[in-house]
Amino acid sequence: MKTLPVATELPAPCQTVKSGFTLIELLTVIAIISVLASILLPALSKSRDRAQAIICLNNNKQLVLAWHLYASDNEERLPYNLGMVGTSFRTDLNWVNNVMTWDLNSDNTNTATLTKASLGSFVSGNTSVFRCPSDQALSSVQRNAGWTARIRSYSMNAMVGDAGNFSANGYNINNPGYTQFFKTTQIPQPAEIFVFLDEHPDSINDGYFLDKSPQGSGGYGGTYYNAQWTDLPASYHNHATAFSFADGHSLLHRWQQPVTIRPPLPNAANLPISIPSSPVSALADFNWVMEHMSVDKD
Fold first, then answer.
1. pTM, whole model, 2 decimals?
2. Would you place residue 85 in the very low, low, confident or very high pLDDT band (cuts 50, 70, 90)?
3. What is the pLDDT of residues 193-221, one digit of tens each?
4. In Å, how far are 19, 83, 182, 212, 229 from 273, measured between CA atoms?
5. For residues 229 and 270, is the Cβ–Cβ distance under 8 A?
6. 179-184: long-range contacts (C-beta < 8 A, 24 or more apart)?
7. Does 45 have pLDDT greater than 80?
């Protein structure tokens, strides 16, 4: 009699083990991402700010190039640079024809005030060169109206160009001891005299950047006492302002004193700003601007 083979037990089917992150592993990954973000985001922000500063410098160079082209077409006479605060006096003869405000006035958005003014054709109607990309300053009224930016960030040195009634006698009544430059040929050191700058959004108004030589000053190249900021430079670029000069170069000048650095907000400038005369270093920023606006008239 044959013995039947004993049945052997079949092996159990293979079971798939499901894998995944544990809670601790997930928390670790999140922590690593947070650390990397904290390291990379400031670097990315600095890169963006630097790129915006470079664009701002280039805008200044484009404007001063247009300024030179205008002079070349007009026997070296410089563009008009008129004080136009308010609505009583406007003209497209000026280098720009708008007055910036914090309300909904169309001067803040109407690009024709740039393109139809005297420098408009010399920048080929490119309105972007009139605004610094770091300038996002708006009032709450303007933001609520859906605005993203105003159209101009730059102003022209008040001592450069025909200032109309202010310079009718051949000198600027705001700075009678200084030379008013009407032609490129009158500027003795073009590399030392600025033409354009980005101005604080709370003082920019008509594009005529003016600071006055105060009473009791030491004169051009001296030390200024009883000084006040009448108009204020912007400080978008890590507490620096972009300037372009009569020889065509541009640079960033960094401010040293807190009194010069005001946030780019409505009513933040609170002008005029009195500058303490002690210590002498408190006047460093103001002195630098005055020394690069003009030269002694005599």
1. 0.82
2. confident
3. 999 999 999 999 999 999 998 755 554 44
4. 67, 20, 29, 12, 5
5. no
6. 179/294, 179/295, 179/296, 179/297, 180/294, 181/78, 181/294, 182/77, 182/78, 183/71, 183/75, 183/76, 183/77, 183/78, 184/68, 184/71, 184/76, 184/78, 184/246
7. no
CB 183 within 8 A of CB 76: yes
User: Residue 196 forms beta bridges with which residues?
Assistant: 156, 244
Residue 202 to residue 100: CA distance in whole angstroms: 9
As a whole number of angstroms, the distance between CA 102 and CA 109 comes to 12
Of 284, 231, 246, nearest to 100 by C-alpha is 231
Q: Are 138 and 105 in contact (CB under 8 A)?
A: no
Question: Which residue, chain included where needed, has tokens 């928390």?
Answer: 27
Instruction: Name the residue with tokens 């040195």.
Output: 157
Task: Tell me if 227 sits within 8 A of 215, measured CB to CB.
Answer: no
